[in-house]
Amino acid sequence: GYMKEGYRWVVDMDLEKFFDKVNHDRLMATLAKSIHDKSLLKLIRKYLQAGVMINGVVSSTDEGTPQGGPLSPLLSNIVLDELDKELEKRGHKFVRYADDCN
Asked: Most CB contacts within 10 A, which of 42, 54, 59, 73?
């Protein structure tokens, strides 16, 4: 659609280490504004804190979302919604999915 409007330049960007740095408390506070089901919020929190296995050793996850997980793109879109609104307010034209933006 933007190309049809005459825009010709594209900047491709990826938010480095985005999935590793998502703040769980801030994300959960954002979700709690729209989700009133406490059991669902607890399930999402458990998903975020499930940990990762590296070389057979489980490490806890205090921040970030599991990369490659089915919920991570949705959660990242929720986290970055505030950024989207600010970019739109400033008149920027962009398309974003998860941590990738053009």
From this structure: 73
